[in-house]
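<tokenise_the_fold>
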Amino acid sequence: MVLVVLAAGLLYATPNLYGRDPAIQITGARGASADLAVLDKINIVLKDNKIETKSAVLENDQVLVRFKNVEAQLQAQDLLRDSLGDGYITAINMSPSTPQWLKSLGGSPMKLGLDLSGGVHFTMEVDMKTAIENSLEQMDQDFRSDLREQKIRYKTVRRVAGADEIQILLRDQETKDQAERFLKDRYRDLLFVDDRSNEFGLVASMTEQKLKATRDYAIKQNETIIRNRVNQIGVAEPNVQRQGAERIIVQLPGIQDTARAKEILGATATLEFREVDESADVRDAVAGRVPPGSEIIMARQGYPVLLKKNLILAGSHITGAQSGNDEYQRPQVNISLDSKGGSKMAAYTKNAIGKRMATVFTEYKPSGKVDENGKALPPIKVEEVINVATIQARLGRSFRITGIDNPAEAHNLSMLLRAGALVAPIQIVEERTVGPSLGAENIEKGFTAVALGFIFVLVLMLLYYKAFGLVANLALAANLVLIVGVMSLIPDAALTLPGIAGIVLTVGMAVDANVLIFERIREELEDGRSPQQAIHHGYDSAFSTIFDANITTLIAAVILFAVGTGPIAGFAVTLAIGIVTSMFTAIIGTRAVVNLVWGGKRLDKLSI
């Protein structure tokens, strides 16, 4: 058993010996695939500019080019991006050099954290005020549609100025009672009270539980969407996690193109579908006579459009988006909706044939300002009409939008819509770039610390416990191999600088079990037991003490991992793995070796 475990640990630790190469990954944009023609063009561009490569291969419809150093990688990225154009995405990363035979067995090197591999770190803050505003707007529309469906006649449903409340005015006491019963039953997480300013009015507000749920939903959904966007960029080994009540941490190892990362991660683009208000002249609205419930939004071409404030459909119902060209070779985006969105669109367009519907592009841009406490001010909402079309037939779950300037913009819009619209805008409040040279220095210093700790422990154990010290040293070496092997097998585990500190600590702790066992064996020998009896009682008697000591440390490591983030979690991972592997090697492994060497023999003394 010991040999099988050690062989497996050694096998899966081996990929870490091969290192990583600076690489560029080229994939097709807008659903296209890289082919042999693209590979040939890449080779020609790199050869003409005298950039040396280790290899360039076409795999799974993408090209992976490996370089000898980071300087050549960065130089090649600019050249390839210019020569290939918008039709292809060039993403830089550090690609493992694992041989194919190891890959076929599931072997891969440990993931490296940002502090070791280099890359960018963003701290992003979710605008909770806008999240609550969006939730209230959705409530406003839901109240209207629900009351209409129940055929409950109301005067108006509107937001209360300066408060997070919605006012519902009914026509008489009977409809008020009917509406109150229906709404309280349907929206049990909302609070409904009588309106003091109107006899037949209700005021709806969020309970504390609803507010908390709205904030949690905003964080969780944005975290998921950001993770989807990271996947769109093509970053290997990203780290996206929540920090506190309003922030999300994004770490992109191996990425030096911060501008591209910020553009994709921080973008809050979404679409809204609104009805064009044709009850009034646009010129009168521009002059200040805007009808109630309507507003003016400028079209991308520069002219004003009068739209109703109520949404036909929000971008949150979009499940798919694909850029392409229409029959006149103009850019377009094909939209797919979820079942609820398809039902809403079908219900509206059924009775709206001949009316005009506008597609509104909404984006939140950072204000670049902070308040007196240093907190970023809410972003600025920017809206523009990108398309106005006459509804020719009843629409369903699939349709298209046009009016987009160029294919690159259509591709970016479709990519953002596929990843999902952010529930609330986010702002990048902190940005750090870690260069690969700093990462290499951290790795070198970290492994120097591990090596020095390992050597000092080896020498001490060998001098103090002699032959048994050699057995403990073999177990310690096996423990390091197993830690690396297990770390390489866990998909979500990444080695960080604090993680290396955890390994250094484990090196010192790993011999604790052997010290307890060997000291107990010495005591048994001093009490007059034979060497065989001393070995047997030494291992059996020390086991409970070793188990208790390690299990309490393991519990602490698990708690650190569960509640900690970033460096704390990185430290906890290696510490927990090290505790488990050290118990195996120090107790089972050393006992197997001791029994193999000294077991079943007549001995007068032990080299301990």
Remarks:
- The longest helix spans residues 436-489.
- Residues 128-210 form one domain.
